[in-house]
Fold this protein.
Amino acid sequence: MNAISPILEFNPELLVYLAIDVIIAILLLTTMRYVMGLTGKVNTTEELSQRDNFAYGISMAGSVLAMGIVLSGAITGEEANNYVNEVIGMSAYGLVGLLLIKAGRWVHDQFSLNQFHKTQLILERNKAVAITDAASAIATAIVVRAVLIWVEGFDVNTFIAIVVGWLISQFILVLVSRIRERRFNLGNVAGFQQALVQGNVALAVRYSGHLIGTAIAVTAASHFIIYDPQHLVAGLLSWLAISLIMMLLLKVLATVAKRIVLMKIPREIEIEQQHNVGVAAIEFAINVSIALVLSALMA
């Protein structure tokens, strides 16, 4: 019994830090709901419980999950030294994360999928558009979380690094979107964005896999680069270079994996013409799985 007692030792102060983090997390997750309603000029209660808008629920779920992902990178626990620092740090990083998630969705709307009115289509119950919206928020959050874990301290340099890391992530995600759109448009009469407007959920699921998989892969940069405020520019440029390399590596390995796993299945026809969500879900899983393996190998 004495042999296992060290394993069971527990610092009571951790309960206080846990309570602080959980309370702030719940408040910020709730805030995300009302921020979505306020910015979209939508009554969230009416959409979710009266109109039973499944698409709006998907979009909100993506934002709430994104907020949770960011908060998981903001928690410091006992490293905060005292309760006040934990409250300030968790709240500040959480609010910054919320703003960056919202800004990331704006970038996605303006530069990635800019040929339709996203909010209106989601209110019209377009699940395909809702899925892409949720995926863009989650992808942004994954990279922001990695940057939060990468940086150290709580000063101006820290927030500069967080914002620049976010900008790098948006550049990469817009690039992925443009590549996917161009490839789709080469083999189809209707454009990629028009297919989403028409409700191709399978296409949205596959596209989401590319966004989230790429976000996971590029976080590998945090394992190669040591955060140094004195050489912040060099560090962030290195982050960009490694992100591009990881994006290309993911593309190559995921393509090989799909051809093996989905051998003898005409993937493009199934997803783009027959709207086969099952095949799209497998492609989503392959993209995310390869990204997770790459990230783990680089750690």
User: Anything to note?
Assistant: The two ends are 36 Å apart (CA to CA). The chain has a mean pLDDT of 88. The chain is about 80% helix and 0% strand. The first helix runs from residue 5 to 8.
